[in-house]
Each structure stands twice: as C-alpha cells, then as structure tokens.
Amino acid sequence: MNDRILFARADERLGRFEVRAVDPFRDAELLHSWVTHPKAAYWLMQDATLPDVEREYMSIAAAGNHDAFIGLHEGRPAFLIERYDPAEVELKGLYDALPGDIGMHFLVAPVDQDRRLHGFTRAVITTVMALLFDDPAVRRVVVEPDVRNTAVHALNEAVGFTVVERLAKPEKDALLSVCTREMFQSAVSAAQATATATATAQGVTR
Question: Could you tell me which residues come within 8 angstroms of residue 100 by beta carbon, excluding any fewer than 6 positions away?
C-alpha cells in the first residue's frame, strides 16, 4: 500500500490539499463510484464495470506517458487527476505539440448539494495546476474538454486557460485550450487580490 504524498498545498479558506498516486486495485471501487456517477457524464465511463475501472487504471499505471492520482482534502479522497503527454495520448496528431506540454483531466468526487463547499472545485483545479507546474520541465498545460461542458470551461478560464480551437475527436467535439505557467500565476495572483479586496471591504462595512 502506497500512501506517499507526492504534492501538497494549503488553501487559505478550505484547508489542506494533497496528492498521491492511484493504486489501481485498492482505489478501483472508489473510482468506480466516482466515474459512473451521473455527474461524471463527461468522464465517458458511465457504463463501466468495476473490472473495467481496474483494467483502465492498471493500463494507465503501466503506461510511460500517462499517470493518475487521487487528490485528498483534509486527508480524505476528494478528486481524481490524470496527467498525460498530449503528443502521445488524447491529442496525438490533432495539434502542434510544443516542448514542455502536459495534458490533464480532473474529476471532483460527487457530493450532496448541501455538503458542497463554496469554491471547492476552483480550489481543486488550482491544486491540479500547481501540481503540474511543480515539475520545472512543464511549460504549458493543454486540455480538451467537451464543448458542452460549460462548467469546466469557466473553471479553466479562471485559472488562466485560453481557448485555441475546436477539435473533432472520435468521442466528442472538444475545445483545445492552453495555459502557460505565467498565465496560471497571473490568474492566481488576480484571484488572491480579489479575495483580499473583498475581505477588506467586508471588514470595513461590518
């Protein structure tokens, strides 16, 4: 059993986020409950069986250009991350890859509406991006969300992504979007400045 924490960050409002590698056998049941949930429709595994999920993440673990992680919030599994080489996985032959490109998918675990923390998904994608850019070789994150997934488009924009073009993939129409390290850092700084200004204004008006 490998619970080694590979990355961690503290969110000022929501607490500690950590990342560990997926264990395809130990985590399969948990991941199956996540990826087959109705809210995970864009993950494209709605009809997957438990053995299907085991095989999928065993395959990812064995690949040299694709890996998967469990994200923890305050020590509890809360989100899934996949990191991949977009020149070889998902986008091979569909875009002009640059040195330092990395691709990613993320999925937040389904929770009841009354248990949802305000700003949690934004904190998750910020953690995912910080994990990716923690590797100094990474210069740009590349994603290809479904054109219909407007919630993810808004999150991507909030952390610095810009849309490059619409792509026709076998399984979906996607919006190819990219975010450089500088774009991400700028977006994070802007969000922090807004949060500080809001807190200051609330303190003054109370």
Answer: 137, 138, 139, 140
- Find out whether 146 and 173 touch, Cβ atoms under 8 Å: yes
Cα(99)–Cα(138) distance, rounded to whole angstroms?
8
Degrees, nearest 5: CA angle 21-162-150: 75
DSSP3 helix / strand / coil % (the chain, rounded to 5): 40, 30, 35
119, burial (CB in 10 Å: exposed 0-12, middle 13-18, buried 19+): middle
Question: ∠ at Cα 149 (26, 8), nearest 5°?
Answer: 45
Is 177 within 8 Å of 203 (Cβ atoms)?
no
Per the CB < 8 A criterion, the answer to whether 175 and 147 are in contact is yes
> Tokens at residue 42, please?
């864009």
Examine the pLDDT at 32 and tell me if it is beyond 60. Answer: yes
Q: Which of 124, 112, 11 is nearest to 70 (CA)?
A: 124
List, for residues 114-130, the tens digit of each pLDDT value.
677 999 999 999 999 99
CA 86 to centroid of chain Cα atoms: 15
